[in-house]
Design goal:
The protein is of the alpha/beta class. The protein contains nine helices and ten strands. It folds into two domains: about 90 residues, HUPs (Rossmann fold); about 160 residues, Rossmann fold (3-Layer(aba) Sandwich), CATH 3.40.50.12370. A ten-stranded mixed beta sheet has the order 3-2-1-4-5-10-9-6-7-8, sandwiched between helices. The two termini are about 25 Å apart.
Length: about 280
C-alpha cells in the first residue's frame, strides 16, 4: 500500500454494510486527499437510499454504473489496466458462513484483485483505537517476508493517520517432538517469535504497543486477539488461491475475515489482475 494512495475504488451494491463502506472510504479520502471512484454493481434502481451519504462526501468523486453486459471482474480488470488503484473498499458480506458451492464475492476479491482490499463491517471511528497487524516473522519464505512488511507499513500508516495504537499478532506452530530443540518447547518458540518480530519492526523503524503471540491455528488466534482487543482494524495478508480449489475452499485470510467483527484490510503479493473465472 503506497504511503500516498492515488486512487480509491469503492464497490457498492446496496447490500449489508454498503453505507459503512461509503462512509469509511469518504473518511480515508478526506485524510489522504485522494479522489473516489464509486462503482455501483447492484440491482436497480442504483444508489437507492444512499442520497444522504453521497451528499455528505466532501471529496472529489466519480460515479460509475456497471455495464449490465459486463461482469464485475471484467470491469475491474479493465479499470486496473487503465490505471491501477491503490485501494479497493467494499462492505463485507455477513453471509460467508452459509454453505455455498462456490466462493463468495468477497473471497474472490481477495484472490483476484492485486490492490489492498478493505472490507468494512462497522461505522465506528478508527481514531484513538487499536490497529492490529497480523504477521508471521518466523517464516523464511521471501514472499511472506514482503507481505509482513506491507502489512506492518499499512498498519503503521493507518495508526499514524488515526492517532491509534499499533499492535501485532503472531500465531506460532505448536511444539513438536522430534523437531529441532527450539521447536519442542512452547516458551522457546514464543521467544523466537518475539525476537523476530522486534527485529523486523526495528528494521522498519516501527514501535508497536504490544506483540500478541500465541499458539495457532492462525485463523483462531488472530481472530481471538482481534475480538478481545476490540481492534478497529485488522491488517492481514493473503497468498490467494485460484483454480478449482480456490472456488470451493477458502484460505486462512478468508477464515479470519469471517470470524472477526472488525474491519479487515487485506494485503496481497503481486500486481497483476488475474482471471480465475
Amino acid at each position: 500500500m503506497p504511503l500516498a494512495p492515488n486512487r480509491i475504488l469503492v464497490l457498492l451494491d446496496g447490500g449489508s454494510h454498503c453505507l459503512e463502506a461509503l462512509n469509511r472510504a469518504g473518511l480515508i479520502a478526506e485524510v489522504t486527499d485522494v479522489p473516489l471512484d464509486l462503482l455501483w454493481f447492484g440491482k436497480r434502481p442504483a444508489w437507492e437510499g444512499m442520497d444522504d451519504a453521497l451528499a455528505q462526501l466532501h471529496v472529489d468523486r466519480t460515479v460509475h454504473l456497471l455495464d449490465p453486459t459486463t461482469s464485475l471482474f471484467d470491469s475491474l480488470r479493465s479499470e486496473w489496466a487503465r490505471e491501477p488503484y491503490s485501494l479497493v473498499v467494499k462492505g463485507c458480506d455477513p453471509r460467508h458462513s452459509k454453505p455455498a458451492l462456490t466462493a463468495p464475492l468477497d473471497w474472490r476479491l481477495l484472490r483476484e484483485v492485486p490492490a489492498p482490499v478493505l472490507l468494512v463491517k462497522r461505522l465506528e471511528s478508527w481514531v484513538g483505537k487499536r490497529i492490529l497487524a497480523a504477521i508471521n516473522p518466523l517464516h523464511d519464505a521471501e514472499v511472506q517476508g514482503a507481505l509482513d512488511e506491507s502489512v506492518l507499513r499499512a498498519a503503521h500508516l493507518v495508526s499514524s493517520l488515526a492517532k491509534a495504537q499499533l499492535h501485532t499478532v503472531i500465531a506460532t506452530e505448536p511444539p513438536m517432538l522430534g523437531a529441532a530443540a527450539e521447536d519442542q518447547v512452547a516458551s522457546l518458540i514464543d521467544a523466537r517469535a518475539s525476537a523476530a518480530a522486534q527485529a523486523l519492526c526495528q528494521r522498519l523503524a516501527l514501535s508497536p504497543q504490544q506483540h500478541h503471540i500465541g499458539e495457532g491455528p492462525a485463523e483462531f488466534w488472530i481472530s481471538q486477539v482481534s475480538n478481545n482487543l476490540s481492534a478497529a482494524l485488522l491488517v492481514i495478508s493473503t497468498s490467494a488461491r485460484g483454480g478449482v480449489s480456490g472456488a470451493l475452499y477458502g484460505n486462512m485470510a478468508e477464515d479470519i475475515l469471517d470470524s472477526t467483527s472488525t474491519d479487515v484490510l487485506v494485503m496481497r503479493a503481486g500486481g497483476v489482475m488475474v482471471d480465475h473465472s
